[in-house]
Amino acid sequence: MKRPAIDKEKGPLTHKEILVVLSGLMTGLLLAALDQTIVSTALKNIVEEFNGLNHYTWVVTAYLLTSTASTPLYGKISDLYGRRPVFQFAIITFLIGSLLAGASQNMTQLIFTRALQGLGAGGLMALTFVIIGDIVSPRERGKYVGYFGAVWGLASVAGPLLGGFFSDKEAILGITGWRWIFYINLPFGILALIITSAVLHIPKVKREHKVDYLGALILVLAVCSLLMSVSVYGPENGWTDSRTIITMILGIGLTLLFIWQELRAVEPILPMRLFKNHTFSLSSILGFIIGAGMFGAIVMLPLYLQVVKGNSATEAGLKLIPLMLGIVSMSIFSGKRISLTGKYKIFPIVGTGIMTLGLILMATLNEETSFFSLSIYAILLGGGLGLSMQTILIALQNDVEFKDMGIATSSNTFFRSLGGAFGTAIFGTIFSNRIAYYLEENLAKLQQSNPEALEGFSPSNIEAITVNTSIISTLPVDLQEVVLGSFAQTFRIVFLAAVPITFIGFLLSFLLKEKPLKSGADHSAARAEAHGEAVG
Length: 536
Prior knowledge:
It contains 18 helices and 2 strands. The protein is mostly helical. Strand 1 and strand 2 form a beta hairpin. Helix 5 runs antiparallel to helix 12 (321-341). The longest helix has 45 residues, at 405-449.
């Protein structure tokens, strides 16, 4: 049999070389992260144009669904074919999706093209951290991974801010304003392609391989079935509806089938042996929890600001800056401290604890809450995310074998995205159910206390408000107050629902085992050993 070839090992990259590589990776990650958040402030205007507030979370969920399902596939495929070509394929797929999303004429087209965007984004998010794991030792990784946490923080605010800016414009260069939230990706994507072509040259292992195509297909079908039941059929048709139950059962059945397939596959997409690793299993659960908390806040907070506080989309984006400050500052701080001390366990414990506190405070929001108070809550929530998100990844990459770096890292991203998709869907469902309930309840009370305020207002108007919130501004003052109060009550319930989820993450963080971080020499030796196994 022909012996596999391996590129000549060049040794560890210098700090300057690593920074050049990072510039390309961060550009790609920024694209993917932006499009998780850029629609949050623009969605209100988009769904009102297409008359579909009841499909509010679909646009986010479609993106999360495909990015989630594809993430572990990218990790495995890049292990086999090399990082750069697979990373660039992800960029091109993302750009095609962006171009088509900007040209969408209805909700169906927008949801479909957002799904295509997500297919590319799955590779951008997963492979960024895989490549970092390839070129930087765990001990030094903290100070670099902190910058990527800063990218997430920047995206968490720049996304909503750009989304608000574009959606507030009727037209730019003759094109409807909100469409630019997708078209803006094109120059950045092309830049990412140029940078990665020029600088992303890392040692690549070439070996005989066998791709588990059946496992990949089952995984995609399982994730899609589960997310469709949770994010589409459940919220739209009810949790006892036959379609909800069938897709849920199908998803669970396909998940069990996937596990069976992976246990027998020669080269599994997601090796089940990884779950024997304590750090891998725990970081997967924590990633899921953090993803749910993060996306729940990023999707719901701009909607609260626009509907309850009456802010424009641009103002809502600007008011998310405290959230970014929390994420960026704590991500960089924790990364540098980890590189300096070699200790990491304390950060996810403190981070998930602060996240939980932030969500508890978010659950006190009402029509009168000041921006100062909201800023404090947002800084706490963002700070918790910054302390937790990248730290878990460092712990994971330090504890898995080098040969499993790609699939282990992408799996962590997979579980975080899965948490985000489930979180967005569940919080969206709670929002839809509670707003209808509170509107009906509070309007009934108004009917008893001030019947004149409801003159000309029919029960059908309640459903109209839940579909299109622009109607609120046309209502009489007394009626407006009741409606806005109902929305405020709903947002409090949504944030409160996230508290037990992050609290479980806080408790689980204590179970994380702190192991010595590998140095540069240990990392190079592990890489050489992995390459030697491939050649042998």
